[in-house]
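A student in our group prepared the protein record below, which I am reviewing. Thanks in advance; the entry in question is below.
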Amino acid sequence: MKDLENITKKLDRRNFLQKTASGLGAFALGNLLSTSSDAKSFEKDLLAALPSIAPKAKRVVYLFMAGGPSQFETFDYKPRLSNMFGQDLPDSVRKGQRLTGMSANQAVLPVVPSAFKFNQHGKNKTWVSELLPYTAQVVDELCIIKSLYTEQINHDPAITFFQTGHQLPGRPSIGSWLSYGLGSENQNLPAFIVLISKNAAKDQPLYARLWGNGFLPSEHQGVQFRSGKDPVLFLNNPEGYDGADRQEMLSYLTQLNQLQNDKWADPEVDARIAQYEMAYRMQTSVPEVMDTTHESDEVFELYGPDSRDKGSYAANCLLARKLLEKDVRFVQLYHQGWDHHGGLPKNMAQQCKQTDQATAALLIDLKRRGMLEDTLVVWGGEFGRTVYSQGKLTQNDYGRDHHPRCFSMWMAGAGVKAGLSYGQTDDFSYNIVKNPVHVHDFQATLMHLLGIDHEQLIFKSQGRRFRLTDVSGQVVKDILS
């Protein structure tokens, strides 16, 4: 009973979820303890540790379009703007809302309709831009949310807010929270892996802190996989070392770390030991998962011609599918180049050409492998774009400024309603008129689909309890299947 009590003291929700199958084995153990008061207390602790939400998703792939894709050229069709080309944005629409410094001094804010046509697709006749022909073919799988909003009007705080729940750096990212809360189902690969398109326009920088662990133990930080000789930096053995040398060195290093841990009881030492052990196992697992030579020609054709070019967006989508097959918990793809203050028609067409086919292919590939039903796919950026043109407006060219008040993104797969368009904006896609969804609402919903109550997954740091959604966020139940 003493040993059992020690185990119970160390039991928390995260460890419980990682080490039991829905708690059945633990309950069986509780029954063996008869009806003693210790047994009842033990069972009470187990009940408290059980998840209160049945998870729909086992894993997530998040396709982040950094820079802020325009909703006018993707999913938010505004036909009434066609007769308003060049007219000044009405004050009744703007309502005194702040502008960025890039367009605040413009004499007029000329309305510009999209240069691209929209057509209806799928069973529900969903409007999709001609720039996304492949996405249009899978639109019945999508839950398109047209009423996202945020308070952040510039890129760095906006993308930081989306990825960490706070506009200032230093908080854990979504993937780190999920790694901490749910752990890993593959002991040979990290629970959180990041892929960045190598050939995307670098209009806005990306920082490693966007997939950082913040104040969580460092073993939960995202690990960036790269194209090229060394997919993970510093993973390969130094020249002249073999596997036995490396294993011996890590064994002695672990002993030194353990001595330090015994003296100081620093949890970060445990994290360091775990990272070294993971790195050793990854020396075998990473080359295997990065190898796409066994994929069929049909698969490469599905993802598009760029899928053979390692490090491209298409190749990363294919690699993401392989990582998800290996039960990696959270895969994050970043594709830069969506910040179109000028030259939007040309640049938007180029961005969609780089991403559209592979994005749709990922959904098709997951579905035919029976994985879409328990994999959540997310697509979107940090904010939207303005209805008015920034800078010079011509019949064939225009730009759009940042717009945080309303924008579009989509989710697909595990637990979300397929073929749904949710939320509504006004005729200028400037304000939300129906079903607003805040960034924290999106984060709370994502966690709910993974079986996590966003108000319960917390971590105490510097005397305060933190969570991904800070002090707000509501699950968007209307989009749940």
